[in-house]
Design brief:
disordered N terminus; single chain; five-stranded parallel sheet; alpha/beta; 492 residues; FAD/NAD(P)-binding domain; binds flavin-adenine dinucleotide; globular; disordered C terminus
Length: 492
């Protein structure tokens, strides 16, 4: 019998009386308890479907949900961190759910409890895992230590501060007319590794910053002193897109002065260089890793079956293999029969489906298999340049595609305040950058740390390069970009 045909008749019948749930943190209702772990696209999508029918507790290691598709804008000083984050309590409350800030470290399916990093345990009737992905380094030496990744709000702030700190250093060197730490012979070389959407967007955005904003923001720097390089080991960029769109994206990046290196594999990332598989060493003052994702290593401790990239294996109805009450959705989940890209749409659709299956199970009805509806993909290169490929094969590019990208991203941001703020900031970026428009540097509470440390709550240790050295001068430069009262959950 396929898992999708199972019904509650097969589920364990040892329902715990509600009062016995250890550390019960749910609302006082007597409805079945559902824990949703992770408030990204997948987790958010579950809430609407579960509303008013279940007592839902959301657990996330951050007090906010992050809109990852615009993180690169934060990293390149075009958006504020608070534009892409929304308070988890507010959005959970809107759907009648409770929120608890905490990191899930263990799952005990027999007792139907999850363990948190603080040692507490919480019981559930149904569990939805929507914990997302983190950087995959594919065994490339030095990548975790010396490259910056871009998966969390903290990653974006760290990257932005390092970028601006290095530009500051370069400006100081240029002013003094001498070469120094900020760039070999007065240069700053930035390498982005990975030619899929994140890498292309990051490279395009950095090129735009150099071409449009430097002249006014850093008049001491000649834009030719800043080099932006995009390295991809495959022979083309944006491989999920049609060949014509791939070629268009490569040509647009080249037009913006990005040094696009296709068919180029990286063997090692060093503190200020990259070593290619060909044996060539290229200087790189700042290396950004955008080459792929995998499940966080912490997922291995959950005792659930894992597939390629550490993703948790799910059955067609999205229940975790071998589990009757645990679902996995989004980037963390892998359906062997229906491999899906790690993108927002699959996470949203899987989240909705898992919640609907819980409704079926609670009514004693059999579950149904998940079917993905491909709505399309898009990527932007920069002002008035993007590629869009709709699910049914329609494609467009250029200004129309860019406007579609802009509109969709603004609409899908959570909260009117974020939408308005992002609209203002993006308009500022695209209209005013080359007329003296300022870079966005503020609203970070603890960015003075520059390098994220192990106690950083904004992501798993393996999403961030540990132990990255920063000179005192760089740290000081970064600290200058941390202003304002903070953008934690309370101030959004
Ligand atoms: C820079 C970047 C740009 C992107 N651009 C696009 C794009 O343009 N279009 C697109 O479709 N997709 C894009 N994606 C991919 C898309 O954002 C992801 O596919 C999507 O966010 C996956 O949703 P999710 O719910 O699975 O995980 P996420 O959205 O990553 O959410 C996971 C949540 O789980 C929490 N969490 C993780 N572990 C734990 C734990 N142990 N305990 C408690 N909480 C935990 C995290 O804090 C987070 O809130 C981009 C991704 C990145 C990183």
């Amino acid at each position: 019998m396929r898992p999708s045909e199972r019904s509650t008749a097969e589920l364990p019948t040892t329902e715990l009386p509600i009062a016995q749930y250890p550390h019960a943190e749910y609302s006082t209702s007597q409805q079945p308890r559902v824990i949703v772990v992770g408030l990204g696209f997948g987790g958010l999508a579950t809430l609407k479907e579960l509303r008013n029918r279940f007592s839902v507790l959301v657990l996330d290691r951050n007090g906010y949900t992050t809109f990852q598709p615009l993180l690169y804008q934060v990293a390149t000083a075009g958006l504020a961190p608070s534009d892409v984050a929304y308070p988890a309590r507010a959005i959970s409350g809107k759907y009648g759910a409770r929120f608890r800030h905490g990191e899930v470290t263990g799952i005990n399916p027999a007792e139907r409890t999850v363990s948190l990093a603080d040692g507490s345990q919480i019981g559930y009737d149904y569990l939805i895992l929507a914990t997302g992905a983190t950087a995959a380094y594919y065994g490339v030496g030095g990548a975790a230590e010396h490259a910056r990744s871009l998966y969390t709000r903290r990653d974006a702030i760290t990257l932005r501060d390092e970028l601006l700190g290095r530009l500051d250093g370069l400006a100081a060197v240029s002013q003094a007319g001498r070469a120094g730490r900020a760039g070999r012979a007065g240069r700053l070389v930035i390498t982005i590794v990975g030619g899929n959407a994140t890498g292309v967007e990051m490279a395009g955005s950095l090129a735009e910053l150099r071409n449009s904003a430097l002249e006014t923001a850093y008049p001491e720097i000649d834009p030719t002193q800043v080099e932006v390089r995009l390295v991809e080991q495959l022979p083309e960029l944006l491989t999920p897109f049609a060949p014509a769109l791939r070629r268009y994206a490569a040509a647009e990046l080249a037009k913006r002065g990005v040094d696009v290196r296709l068919g180029t594999a990286i063997k090692e990332v060093k503190p200020e260089a990259i070593l290619l598989a060909s044996g060539e060493t290229l200087p790189s003052d700042l290396t950004v890793w955008a080459a792929g994702v995998q499940a966080p290593s912490a997922a291995a401790a959950w005792g659930l079956e894992q597939g390629k990239g550490g993703r948790i294996v799910v059955e067609p109805d999205l229940r975790v293999r071998g589990q009757d009450r645990i679902f996995a959705v989004g980037d963390i989940a892998a359906d062997a029969e229906q491999p899906l890209p790690q993108l927002a749409q699959p996470a949203l659709q899987m989240g909705r489906h898992a919640a609907r299956q819980i409704r079926l199970l609670a009514r004693g009805e059999p579950t149904v298999p998940f079917g993905y509806r491909d709505k399309g993909i898009m990527a932007t290169i920069g002002r008035r340049s993007a590629v869009v490929q709709l699910g049914r094969g329609r494609r467009f590019r250029g200004t129309i595609a860019w406007l579609a990208w802009l509109g969709l991203h603004l609409v899908t941001l959570l909260g009117n305040r974020n939408r308005i703020s992002a609209l203002i900031n993006l308009s500022w970026r695209y209209v005013a950058w080359n007329h003296g428009g300022g870079l966005i540097v503020g609203d970070d509470q603890s960015g003075s740390s520059g390098s994220p440390g192990p106690a950083d709550p904004d992501g798993p240790a393996d999403s961030r390069p540990p132990g990255r050295d920063a000179s005192a001068a760089e740290s000081a430069a970064r600290r200058r970009y941390t202003a304002g009262p903070g953008d934690g959950a309370g101030v959004l």
